Amino acid sequence: MNQPLMLTAAQKAGPKVTLALGALILALLLSLPLLSLLTADHPLHVSAYTLTLVGKILCYAIVALALDLVWGYAGLLSLGHGLFFALGGYAMGMYLMRQAAGDGLPAFMTFLSWSELPWYWAGTDSFLWALCLVVLAPGLLALVFGFFAFRSRIKGVYFSIMTQALTFAGMLLFFRNETGFGGNNGFTNFRTILGFGITEPGTRAVLFLATVLLLVASLFIGWRLARSKFGRVLTALRDAENRLMFCGYDPRGFKLFVWVLSAVLCGLAGALYVPQVGIINPSEMSPTNSIEAAVWVALGGRGTLIGPLLGAGVVNGMKSWFTVAFPEYWLFFLGALFILVTLYLPKGVIGLLKKRGES
């Protein structure tokens, strides 16, 4: 008679433990930029490398969360989110290159003997316009692609293949020098952002804090959507689209909204990634990167919001070690990880923890 009561108490304690753990992790993340401002000989000093590495992983965590919204809740497996991430990065990179060039042309344009800026570079010396491009570039592309894809009722593996083809086409386009985006070298050698030195400890700390705030805001948006009627419609769309249509719902609008929202979140993550890492090039659009994002979500547990963040942290932490110790084996390990998760952890790490908590 007492066992159900004990299980109920444990289930009630679960959210409190999760909230406490989340608050602890948030406090730790917020303390990192402050610790990075300490002198190098201080025992609690956090190096610029560590701060950059964690900031990069947090940007990837936002991408994982964005992908979870479309895959975990709407059932749309995208293998092209790397394109939206890179577009946001390129939009911010254009502003940073203009800041580095001053009144002249960016260095790569001078090298290619260009005499003037292309028309689509107009206004990129303005930070506000750069922020608009960060949202508009991935958002409009997702809107146009999603409108035609969902109107044609493309889904399943066909949707995944089309998104992968889209990001591959974008990568090939940006590799060309004549497109005006730096070719295979991309953008680098950034100097200032809003007049502040981009390598200064204070600037790095502010960029890191902005990344944490974006992650928290993205998590809040996802949580609100998941708990709303819109979220319930999305899960119904994922599990039984035909039944949902029979009930009078048009799934195209729901798909398109969450698809565009996901693309915009990726673009914002890319915009924060570039000034912290210091480079953006077409390799960020590689289909491999988008597949990695799917691995993050699958490992953590899709449809859970928290799971993809965990997956992004674990996989990228292992990648940082693997690419130094055994660089030639990383892709083999990544493929094996995806297969093992699919076979033995269909609900990811979060699903495994919930199952053990209930037993």
UniProtKB/TrEMBL annotation:
It comes from the Bacteria. It is a multi-pass membrane protein. It is found in: Cell inner membrane. InterPro entries: ABC_transp_permease, ABC_transptr_urea_perm_UrtC, LivM-like. The keyword Transmembrane applies. GO terms for cellular component: plasma membrane. The keyword Cell membrane applies. Keywords: Cell membrane, Membrane, Transmembrane, Transmembrane helix. One of its GO terms (molecular function) is branched-chain amino acid transmembrane transporter activity. The chain crosses the membrane at residues 20-39, 46-67, 73-92, 127-150, 157-175, 205-226, 253-274, 294-317, 329-346. Its main location: membrane. NCBIfam families: urea_trans_UrtC. PANTHER family: HIGH-AFFINITY BRANCHED-CHAIN AMINO ACID TRANSPORT SYSTEM PERMEASE (PTHR30482), SLR1201 PROTEIN (PTHR30482:SF4). This is Amino acid ABC transporter permease. It comes from Pseudomonas fluorescens. The lineage of its organism: Bacteria, Pseudomonadati, Pseudomonadota, Gammaproteobacteria, Pseudomonadales.
